[in-house]
Amino acid sequence: MPLKAAELQIIGLAGIKEVAPGDPLAMLIVQAATGCGLSPADGDILVVAQKIVSKAEGRLVELRQVEPSPQAQEWAEAWNRDPRLIECVLRESRRVVRMERGVIIVETRHGFICANAGVDTSNVPPGWASLLPVDPDASARRIANNIHEQSGFRVGVIISDTFGRPWREGLVNVAIGVAGVAPLLDYRGHVDACGKELHATVIAIADELASAAELLMGKALHTPVVLIRGLKLPQREGSARQLVRSPEQDLFR
Amino acid sequence: MPLKAAELQIIGLAGIKEVAPGDPLAMLIVQAATGCGLSPADGDILVVAQKIVSKAEGRLVELRQVEPSPQAQEWAEAWNRDPRLIECVLRESRRVVRMERGVIIVETRHGFICANAGVDTSNVPPGWASLLPVDPDASARRIANNIHEQSGFRVGVIISDTFGRPWREGLVNVAIGVAGVAPLLDYRGHVDACGKELHATVIAIADELASAAELLMGKALHTPVVLIRGLKLPQREGSARQLVRSPEQDLFR
After folding, report:
1. What would the pLDDT profile of B45-57 be if each residue is shown by its tens digit?
2. Chain B neighbors of A244, CB-CB under 8 A
3. From the list B36, B191, B244, which residue is nearest A220 (CB)?
4. Is the pLDDT of residue A196 over 70?
5. CATH superfamily placement of domain A9-57+133-245
6. B-chain residues within 8 Å CB-CB of A223?
7. DSSP-derived secondary structure letter, B196
8. CA B207, CA B213: separation in Å to the nearest integer?
9. Chain B CB contacts of A36 below 8 Å
10. CATH fold for the domain made of A60-129
11. Whole-number Å distance between alpha carbons of B122 and B85
12. What H or E segment, with its residue span, contains residue B227?
């Protein structure tokens, strides 16, 4: 008899059309799952692309209504960028980490460190930009609660965005909002295969789940929601704020 | 009729026992897959934990044979660490990036930036440490070639390790060796859902695949190999060296 292999299913939910401000995301997600012959179930994790959350929440800016500050204008001129976009980036930021070679790396108001504060002109109409949700943990919480109301099931929800990182090429998807799942899995105190106690091993599973989902999302592939099934986790609460390293713990500030 | 959902299967290959120097990894992996009722197939990706690759390649050091340098001794005393371990870390490093609060962040000889140069005492016998493979891309290439010889199938192979990162809590699995798959997926030139050309979007799928696999590996769970099936990628060559950002491109040096 074959050994039972542990298995995760990563399922891209096709069929979610263009999302507009006010759209009921949880309902669209449940409908998309149903359309794929699936129903969300207890313990499933739904990874939802930030872009559709921002759209549903109306976090869109029409650039012609943005008045750039002198700082934004100066920087835009120096690097041949749109001063109104720079202005949006600065407004969304708590702190500019680096501003060179045409790239602005900031700490967002949530504490995330990323390029352009998550302000983005892809997948929105020309002349508009999307901003990150004001409180992505609350966005995740709302989606999880609404799915529970509609389906009776308790799912984990992760709002994801693609971030660059120092030292390594390429972007990866990370979690910017979390509900219904603990974002960190702590192995400290467990023993390894040799019976030795593991130290200092805390895995950012919410980021790993976001990365796993990205493999089916693509950037232009119309798959903004991915369902992950089969991960046996204790049902626990958590938030993406737990993924933000405090300044005093961070060797790289 | 339900829409066809895109789906990835992430399958932990159970049944790989303790690996010793000289063990034929490809054969052990094919046997483990068979034991789980699976056969590797064209286009599958195998994510293999660094630890078993290092063990199979004999990249183990007995600490009582390590003579610490004065620098290693000084630092070990200051932070109450084992000077022989510090010595191993320094020998594996090209450059020390940070050395404070008891943590050594280095650039390894491969160019990876990580804690302790990947020198690790978990999952090895007491008094020993494991080192990263000398050339993890070559390790991945060997495994892929040997699996092809034994099974006739062409799989992608990713050697993974868990790394910390600035700004965010928790470790994630990343790719340190790659063969038979391109580690970066380049969306530049594609159009988004609004018909706009995507700029600057290169996704580090090898890291995302490594992260996805970690969800089933755990640190102590005896699942050092994970098979990922269903990702439709062009079969292309690539290496983990492509994931190392060159100093002149890196805003964080």
Report:
1. 999 999 999 999 9
2. 167-169
3. B191
4. no
5. CofE-like (3.30.1330.100)
6. 6
7. P
8. 10
9. 2-5
10. CofE-like fold (3.90.1660)
11. 13
12. strand B225-229
Q: What is the ipTM of this complex?
A: 0.94
From the centroid of its chain, how far is CA B182? 15
Length of chain A: 253
Q: What is the mean pLDDT of residues B124-148?
A: 96
DSSP B103: E
Instruction: Please enumerate in sequence order all residues whose Cβ is within 8 A of that of A140, keeping only pairs 6 or more positions apart, or say none.
Output: A48, A157, A158, A159, A177, A178, A179, A180, A240
The pLDDT assigned to B127 comes to 95
Decide if A5 and B12 are in contact by the 8 Å CB cutoff: yes
Q: Which two tokens stand for residue A25?
A: 């995301």
Distance CA A176, CA A178 (A): 7
Q: CB distance B215–A211 less than 8 Å?
A: no
**How far apart, in whole angstroms, are the C-alpha atoms of residue B43 and residue B50?**
21
> pLDDT: is B197 or A216 the higher one?
A216
Q: Say which of A15, A168, A245 has its CB closest to residue B245.
A: A168
Residues contacting residue A243 through CB under 8 Å, at least 6 positions apart = A174, A175, A178, A183, A184, A204, A206, A207, B168, B169, B170
Fold of B9-58+136-243: 60s Ribosomal Protein L30; Chain: A; (3.30.1330)
Point out the least confidently predicted range of A26-40, A86-100, A181-195, B96-110: A181-195
Which residue among B214, B231, B242 places its CB closest to the CB of A203?
B214
SS3 A31: helix
Does an H or E element contain B177, and which? Answer: strand B172-179
Sequence-ordered strand ranges (E) for chain A? 6-12, 45-49, 60-62, 93-100, 103-108, 113-115, 128-130, 156-163, 172-179, 185-186, 202-203, 225-229
Q: Which residues contact A212 (CB under 8 A, 6 or more apart)?
A: A8, A10, A47, A226, A228, B8, B10, B208, B211, B212, B215
pLDDT averaged over every residue in chain A: 91
Residue type, A157: V
